[in-house]
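Morning. Coffee machine broken again, so started the prediction first thing and wrote up yesterday's gels while waiting. Chain of 295 residues, entered below exactly as on the submission form.
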Amino acid sequence: MPERCDILLAGTMGNIGPDVRDTLAAHGLDVRIMDFPQNVQRDEFGYRRLLMKTVAACRPGMIMPIGNPVTLAKIAEEAAAGESPRSFPGICDGIVFAVEKLEKVRQLDGKVSCSALAASLGIRQPNIYSSPEEAGDRQVIFKRDVSFGGQGVHLPWNRKSLENLIAHQSPGEPYLIEDFIKGDDYSIDVVRFPGCTQSGCYKVVEHHPATGGTDRGSMCPSTGREMCSFPEIEQMALRILDSLDYNGVCGMDFRVDADGLPWFLECNPRFTGGVKSQVEAGFDIPYILYTHQKR
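Came back before lunch.
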């Protein structure tokens, strides 16, 4: 019989997977990590096959996504419909997938769809432009619809740089062109379930040097974080999640300008790089998610 574990973390995504593992293990849980460092941006066959092989080896009671909520949500949906892979019949039977429904995850994970949702709710966000010509000479940010760790977010030097970024998009691949808001970076992580909504907000005080793509102005992920209270950011975040009745863990990024106004930037329906800082501050996101998904 295969060995059993409590939780399988699907992927690593830098330090996020190990941080989540250590936090859950501190509660006495047997946690395994599927060592898949590549960021899964689409429904990749290699990821699926490795996940099924890992599930067969450790038979987890629960699977949590690390950096790949859309793909895991799709697998969870297929498993619920009895559509397990032919080479692993019934492999997902009895497993709890700690991820929301595919439609909701896609809505939040896509930068274009989430921006449209925020706009429909009257959430303050940077102006959006349909083309380099409409943006003119303004300083803008270019965002690929799906990206990880800032690698799909660029600060083009000029209009020609912006045009080059668009030219290198795959045909039909959506993107955003939006105003660059000068200010400080803030983020919030939320765990939302019926009767339980908890959140933690922090200001980014230090960034990683950009790795790769620096000549194209890639933005940098955060490292140093300072926990804080920012009610308006919390209200904006919860308004977005409430509109979808989203249950689970979700992180959102904001920029706060010189006047103290927060501007919504993007959403990540998963654990974020701030998970360790949140746990150290007393907001045990992974364990809260585990206990509510077990119910």
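The radius of gyration is 19 Å. Going to sketch it on the whiteboard this afternoon.
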